[in-house]
Design goal:
The chain is mainly α and 138 residues long. 72% of the residues lie in helices and 0% in strands. The protein has helices at 2-28, 35-57, 63-85, 87-92, 114-134. Helix 1 runs antiparallel to helix 2 and helix 2 (35-57) packs antiparallel against helix 3. The longest helix has 27 residues, at 2-28. The N and C termini lie close together (10 Å). The mean pLDDT is 94.
Length: 138
């Protein structure tokens, strides 16, 4: 049971860090989120609460919810990253709101953008949730 709880904590820590990062970028750095960023936030922020409650209750069955939400969020992040970095996707990207989804506020090391950071967090949560569910008695 201890390993499952460690995995739950890992998933929660990734979601909490992602939430703090997105709040930093919008509230402190002043970067206005695009429409796809909002969808990613809609899927990430509840994970902090769901996984936090799951840790407190030692309820590894919450991994079902975090698996689904992180999977969908990861796909949105992957698409968002693709329209930022792959030319033919960028050219075909639809306009979305006041802030273009193809814009990059950050581009650390030539590949780390905000959607990449979200994709990393969603992947950590997804893998941790999958590992919890694959262990016997989830």
């Amino acid at each position: 049971m201890q390993k499952k709880e460690n995995l739950l904590f890992t998933a929660w820590a990734a979601s909490f860090t992602a939430m703090l990062g997105s709040l930093y970028f919008s509230e402190i750095a002043g970067y206005e989120p695009c429409e796809l960023c909002w969808y990613q936030r809609i899927l990430m922020y509840p994970l902090v609460l769901i996984l936090g409650i799951a840790i407190a209750r030692r309820d590894t069955k919450a991994a079902v919810y975090s698996l689904a939400m992180s999977g969908i969020g990861g796909l949105i992040s992957l698409y968002h990253y693709g329209i930022q970095k792959i030319d033919f996707l960028t050219d075909a990207a639809p306009a979305c709101g006041r802030v273009p989804c193809t814009g990059m506020y950050i581009n650390w090391f030539g590949f780390v953008t905000i959607p990449f950071l979200a994709l990393t967090a969603f992947t950590i949560i997804f893998v941790a949730s999958l590992m919890i569910l694959k262990r016997k008695g989830a």
